[in-house]
Amino acid sequence: MKKSLSIDKFITVSIIIFYIISVFSIKSASMYMSTNLGNLVLKQSIWYLLGIIFIINILKFDNNFFYKWSYLIYGVNCLLLFGLLFFAPSINGSKCWYNILGFSFQPSEFMKISLILVYSRILGEFNRKRKIDLKKEINLIFKIFIILLIPSILTFLEPDTGSVLIYFIITFFCLFVSKLRLRWFVILLTSIIVFLAVFFYFYFYQQDLFINILGNDFFYRMDRIINWQNGSGMQLENSMAAISASGILGFGFNKTPIYFPEAGTDFIFGVFASNFGFLGSSILIIFLVLFNIYLINLTNLKLNYSDKTLIIGVIGIIFYQEIQNIAMTIGLLPITGITLPFISYGGSSLISYLILMGLILNITKKRV
Q1: Which long-range contacts (CB under 8 A, 24 or more apart) does 73-77 make?
Q2: pTM of the full structure
Q3: What is the arithmetic mean of pLDDT over 123-147?
């Protein structure tokens, strides 16, 4: 008798809830978005459908299959990032997307998957070693550094600083569950502090040299981030005004009271909060916290090192993007263009997260 798959019900139901929240929020945001973008609710539904198709196909394989081909997947993504510099159209000064038959494709979103898969393979092999000496640790750190460096440089040149930061977040979380000794994390933390001290010294006190080395564009990007609290940008001001005026229950569905740019993507939380108020926002945040806790608890299962690394990597980027997106919407953190996972409009981002959910479902699936 052929066995059937028992799929994790909590993750499955969560994806359905995310979809409902996403399309309702995007519908409400559409009133202030260009009609040239088309029916965004329909498009988001299509992205969800494509993501589900990816999940169904992922479940036909064991994750070891994806770990085996992780280097090839990583290499293809690096080539796609490299190709952006030559073939991608410039949108708002950035070359982050391929435009294919009217649909945009952002390789940096899929590089997140590539890094998690490669790290899961490398760290899984490393953690399975019975004896780990200094030479093996150095070899591991060098390999991880090179794997991180290549896409970071290519993505930085687009420029897309937010995605580069996500690459580093993934790397840190994955290394955190490795068998590297504590001293390496102390060295890493010290190196980061020294680097930032030198970096900000040149930024504040040697600005001409800073611009000569890194260029005007990067200087002004840093200036916008560092001076975000002093800014008077209409996007943030209007978002905060809409949220603060929404009260306990909000203005109601499809009644976003004021315009702010990127309402359906970066500032989707502002739309949701203005529609459903403090109560609705609290419920959404609680649900996100419960979802994160559930993923964290999966690491308590009897897992191999590769699968545990994969789950931790996914947790890291979801947790970071949730905090960054919601905090920047209410003025607690600088605006970096980070979307809210599963909720914000966007094909590449959404499909990449659904693929990651497929890989986690592969870990939790049972045959009955």
Answers
A1: 73/113, 73/114, 73/117, 73/118, 74/114, 74/115, 74/117, 74/118, 74/147, 77/107, 77/110, 77/111, 77/114, 77/151
A2: 0.90
A3: 88
